[in-house]
Every structure is written in structure tokens, then in C-alpha cells.
Amino acid sequence: MSHSDTPILPVYHSKQPTTKHLFFGRASNDKRILFTFLFFFFFICFSWLFLIPDPSIVQQRSYAQIYGDFAPHISSRVNLIHNKLPIPQPPQEERSRPQHFSFPHTTLILTESSETQSSISEGNSVNEKKEYVKSMMHHAWNGYQTYAFGQNELKPIAKTGHSPPILGRASEIGLTIVDSLDTLWIMGMREEFIRAREWVRVKFDLRVSSDISLFEANIRYVAGFIAIYTMTNDELFLEKAKECADLLLPAFNSPSGIPFSLINPVTGNGKSWGWAGGSSILAEIGTLHLEFLYLSYLTKDPIYYSKVLNIRRILKELPKNNGLYPNYINPYSKSWGQAHISLGALGDSFYEYLYKAYLITNRTDTEAKEMYYSAIEAIRKDMLKRSSTGLLFIGDLRNGRLENKMDHLGCFAGGLFALSSLDAPPSMHEDFLQIGEELTSTCHESYSRSDTKLGPEAFHFNGGQEAKASRPNEYVYLLRPETVESYFVLWRITGKQKYRDWAWDVVQALEKHTRTENGYSGIRSVYSIPTQFDDVQQSFFLAETLKYLYLIFCDDDTYSLDKWVFNTEAHPFPIIPGINA
């Protein structure tokens, strides 16, 4: 309405206007204006109490924008709001499950009873086994969430938090939370995931004044955030991955660019492990490539990739004895340390990442491929051995002498050989696959020959002592994943039922010998029953062991190996399309 259209109101003249006149239009124009102003002022003030949005609703809406069905009481489909990456998605059944889950009360629900134990070994469907593994994750997570949420790990018997030495004095930086994010997502544990995500948003901060392991912070924190970002497209996780990597970058400030093993994120000071004699470790400096390459790809910042590319150039150019890479290298002089070569502890994931750097770049990083197959050929020639009873194993080489021993950590090698058989020279394809199967069978023997049917930390091949530990410090089982990782890879590549059967054997052994009231614990001897707990639920049990056990009972197109590459902590990254490394 224009000003000229304003209606003319009648004016009533009175020397003493009454209250009624004032409030029902029989006052002056000025008083009516004042009344109108006051009326609307009080109306707005009163209404504001009802118009202020509930902060929890605002937060829930932000979840809904990204997660759809994953936030409670929100729509039943994932709503991806970013399109930066052509990322493969999980099968539809994995993305449209109900919001709330209960675990079936069938014969699969194991108890301490040996009778129950014996009744469920055969005849359960693959889907029931998968769901049972998910119930194990639920049990492990519930104990952590109840007694140690926000701390690094859980002591399930003491019902308190635990922090591993790899993180120094930093005890409350949510290692289990970050390591478990993608496992929660993959298994459809949506409510648990939402709570974990909220803790990351509010609480997570790697700026701790403590010496932490560069290697462990990378494979667990940086990789954990990258993996869950690629699954959800939630920018929070990419921001956290970048924050972590930026805090780790000063570790590369050595004269050579070979990073120090330890870094203080607050001071930026780096140093080597005291036991390493001033050297950096091959597996640690060689297990940064996937994460730093991927972060450069996601952020378009070349700084991360340039750091790991420099490491590769140095390692490639250094002279090597028979093509083998020693486990120690000096970050100042770029020279090799003691002559110890291993595909187990200290060396393992360096070789894994050479091949996976080739895979993650959609098979365009041919330099990584050439370095990998050259190194593996040297290992086959000098470190692969058959025991007196016919078990194939990879021993450590010390000063030219091969040890008749294999680490549990080295049991990933069966899966690596099998996976890399796909790109081996045609004449070597069957050999690689056979080596992978035989190494995995040897690791299985280390499990089946123990009283608990769980594998020791290391095992020997000395005549009558085949695939068994010989020292008390080797008797332990720390909830490690390497053997089941190889079962998973061999199942996906060969489709042989025995790998699923062996995985189910591990599930039953874990339930019988490592389950506690509030989670799972490592045990001090795989050869003693009843078992003695070490009272630590390792974060990698949730990140790796349970994830691989779950995926082996999933359809093969669930995080398929031709679309995803798993880092050494089992965090899956989608293969980068159209990249030229």
C-alpha cells in the first residue's frame, strides 16, 4: 500500500479521553503510533523465547545434510553434498539399513560355555557370521565408550583408559575413536559413528607436547581421517587429516629430508628412537606414501607428496647389497645402518606401500611397481625358505645369515604376494599366488598348533619346533590382524572356502580366549588355558582385525580390491582415477 492510499481515520474530540478511548482508537494519532510501537516491541520480545532454535536441532540438521540415514530420526538415504571425487560407494544394502540395530539372539551368540562353543562351528550362514562379527565390534566399542571414551585405548578388566608408548604422554587423543571411524561406518553402526564424529568435532586435537610416532600418527590418524572422508564426503574429516599432517611435517626437517621417527607436534622437534642408534626405520619412512600422496590429491597442495617422493628418490638411488633394503637409515648422512633386512618388524610395510602406491594411482606409478618387483625378487632369492617339514616362510636376514623365524607381523606377506600376483610378469603370476597361499598356510599353522588356536608374536622352524614360539616374549597374542588380513585377501582372489573357514576359527578363538565382560584383551600365552589377559584392547583390533573378519563374510563387491586400496592399518582409500604419478 502506498502512502497516498492510507485510509483517513475519524478523530473523536474529548477534553478527557478515557482509557477505553486510548486503547480502542479514540486517542490522538501520536498516541496510536506510540501504542502500536510498544505493542510490537513487547510481542517480539515475548515471541523470541519461542523462536530461538534449539542448538541440538541445529547440530542435527548439519548431520542430516551429510549423513541422511546415519543421524537418528533423519531420512533413510545418504545425502552426499560434495562431488569432489568420483568415489565408489558401498553397495546399497550397506547404505540403507535401519537406523537402529539389534544383534540376533541365535546360536551364534557365544558364551563362556564350551558346549555353546562346539555347537556353532558349522552350519551358520555367511550373513549370520558377518552379523556376529559386527556384534563383536559392538561389544568392543561399548566397553571403550563406557570406560575410556576419548582416551587412546581401553583396559577392559581395569575399566580404565590405556595409552601405548607410540604416543608418549599424550593419553587423551582418541586413538581408538579415529582408528574405528571407518569400521563403524562399514558395519552400519550409525549411532556410534555419530557420537564418535561429534567427539572429533569438539575434542580432537593432535597438538600435544609429547614425542609421538610419525609412522603411527600417519597410518592411524591421517589415514583414518582420509578414509572416512572418502566414504562420507564430510569436510570435517578432511580438515582433521590436513591438521594432523601439517603437525607432522616438521619431522622431515632433517638434513636429508629423511624424517625422524618421533615428532613433538607443539615444538616441532624431531628425533630418532633411542634403541635405533640415531637411525630412522625403513618401515616407518616407507609407510607414508599413500597418505601423503592422497592428501596432496585431495587438497591440491603438493607439499605432502613432495616429502614422500624425496624419500623414494633417496631409497632408490642408495646402493643396495643384492637388491635388498636394510631396516636402518641415517637421516643425516643418508647411509644405511646395520645389515638387518626383514619383511616382518621394521621392514614390512615399506614393501607393501611400494606395490600399493602403484595400485592407488590406478596403476600409473610405474616407478613404484618396478621398485617393488625388484625388491621382492631379491627377497624371494635370499629370504624365502622351506622348513624341514615343508612349511614356507620368510626369515630375517642379519649380516648375511638367515634366521629360521617369522614374525606375526610378517603374516601380511601372504596376502601381499597374492595381491601382487595380479601384476607380476605373466611367467611369475602363478608363482606369486602359490607363495602367497603357502605363506598364509604357514601362518595358519602357527595358529592351529597353539592351545588357544591363536597365533604367537613370532614362531620358529628348528627341526621339531615348527611354526611355534620358543621364547616367553613370543608367546603373546596382541589381537593382531596380519593373518586374518591374508585370509581376507586370499578369499577375495581365489574364492577358496578354507579362508572363510579359517577366519571363522579365529572368531571362535577370540570369543573363547580374549573376550572379557567389557571388551577384548590380548593374552600372555597362546599355549596356556585358561588364558592370562594383558588387559589392553588395542585400537588396531577394531581398525583391522574385526574389519577384515567382517569383510571376509561380505560380498566381494563390498570394498572390492579392484576399487579400494587398504593402507597398513586397514583404512581403505578409493583408487584415484586419471592420475599420473
Q: What is the multimeric organization of the chains shown?
A: single chain
Helix content: 40-55%
Give the strand line-up of the largest sheet.
Answer: 3-4-5
Report the count of strand segments. 19
> Sheet with the most strands?
3 strands, antiparallel
The coarse silhouette is globular
Helices and strands: which structural class?
Answer: mainly alpha
Low-pLDDT windows of residues: 1-29, 44-62, 71-121
Q: In DSSP terms, counting alpha (H) and pi (I) runs of 4 or more, how many helices?
A: 20
Q: What is the averaged pLDDT score?
A: 85
| Share of β-strand residues | 5-15%
**N-to-C span:** 67 Å
Using only CA atoms, what is the Rg? 30 Å
Give your account of this protein's structure.
The protein is mainly α. The protein has 20 helices and 19 strands. It has helices spanning 19-23, 29-51, 55-67, 92-95, 114-119, 126-147, 175-186, 190-202, 214-232, 235-248, 282-285, 289-299, 303-317, 348-360, 366-382, 413-420, 429-448, 482-494, 497-513, 539-551, and strands spanning 153-155, 160-162, 212-213, 262-263, 270-271, 280-281, 328-329, 340-341, 384-386, 392-394, 397-398, 401-402, 405-407, 458-462, 465-468, 515-516, 519-520, 564-566, 572-574. The strands form 8 sheets. It has a 3-stranded antiparallel sheet with strand order 3-4-5. It has a 3-stranded antiparallel sheet with strand order 8-11-12, with no helix packed on it. Strand 1 and strand 2 form a beta hairpin. Helix 7 (175-186) packs antiparallel against helix 8 and helix 7 runs parallel beside helix 20 (539-551). The longest helix is centred in the N-terminal third of the chain and has 23 residues, at 29-51. The protein is globular. The N and C termini lie far apart (67 Å).
